[in-house]
């Protein structure tokens, strides 16, 4: 859950319908009147012009674009530069009403996965037309280089799946046979969550240094022309791309972390497209009508927001305290206040997002506002309220700081409500606003926090909570800070369940084990899910083409098909 905000790199064995959140797909031309609700989230495809430029407002700037490294955790980096430039084995597409994995044009067909004894083999056939932007063919050497960089490297964002690779064979340049030492139900994530890297350019070189500030190679329809840190990123077409060529000459992402400023830029014509976090003022503007602006809102989301606890840091090293905090918060009231106008009014009850709803249980529903239970739990753990009404134990108060991203008014409101509710329950919470680069580059990986409020985003539709909660995925100095169990979760009875979810190939058994894991997670409350964040896309009538929110690969997944309206 993977995930950017930290991105959990998730996979899925079958294409399954999203069922736990009602889809709100609203495509309306906002010209001062109320838009109509539709059952589809796609927009009419009209003729577009060849050439021209589109400017897109971006909420976040990534710390780096070395996609396999921890510093590339911001989901906006994935949306802006990874998806348009990195070749992947599986894309996420809408099939029969559900978003799921389909083979991309990098491969000549569906890879073949076979169980072999105690392990598994996956055979990939590479499309002979697939080439890098310098004209060199994409070959089995690129797959091998990528797999070994992830499996054997340090400071790797998430090694899940790749850590099972025991051998890679290349019978010919267009064939790759990967052997896993144990079966991996999420095998479709391999070479899909990160993509494939060019061995002929990176092997033997300092990959991190080459890719940190942008790179000039591409295996997708776009390539990075420039990255002006603090200001913008510009993409131009990859002339050697073998698939659908872009209509536009240039796309510029303008960094606008402040939502109010971003909306003003859209209304003034400084930017043509926004993909904002849904803020109350933004939603009210959409409802009132923005002349010349079309909107799309979809509650089918892989973006899950939570209060994240550092399970090794005081006071959240106590299960009783974590449970007490869960009983201190009226999560439904928070969700209703934030997203009620979109029909989303109930808290998320699992860390499995709606994208993988079939694998989710609802065990977190046991936690609602109950101050009597708070008192029972805290007093049972040896705490007593001091003269300020704050819980205290052994000379330490139940005080903590929560880290969140600066410039996001919705999260500002959420932290203020949390602060008020927790104060009523006897907890003293302060708020630290930080940058994405600091939060996901050092603070979270190094465990230098007590609690946090951010969203994780499923970048592949498969249930692998092991990325976030398996104890072997805790980043440490010994493993080069690889892994995204930033929360330092180590629950002995949970590890084997999460491992079984990863290895179980029988869908029904996998679902059952996943729900067992959900129950253990809810009992231990290593963190607390709040909501799934509805997705909002806004664009001016200058922009044409099939604009559509992809809840996994983001809003710019089909950017090559966009153009200036004909």
What does this structure look like?
By secondary structure, the protein is α+β, with helices and mostly antiparallel strands. Helix content is 24%, strand content 22%. The chain contains 14 helices and 24 strands. The strands form six sheets. It has an eight-stranded mixed beta sheet, with helices on both faces. Strands 19-18-20-14-21 form a five-stranded mixed beta sheet. It has a four-stranded antiparallel beta sheet with strand order 5-6-8-7, with helices on one face. β16 and β17 form a beta hairpin.
**Which blocks of ≥5 consecutive residues have pLDDT under 50?**
1-44
Helix/strand-derived category reads alpha+beta
The largest sheet is:
8 strands, mixed
Strand content: 15-25%
Shape: globular
Distance between the termini: 39 Å
Helical stretch count?
A: 14
Mean pLDDT: 89
Query: Strand order across the biggest sheet?
Result: 1-13-22-12-2-11-10-9
Give the beta-strand count.
Answer: 24
Binned, the helix content reads 10-25%
Q: Indicate the radius of gyration in whole angstroms.
A: 23 Å
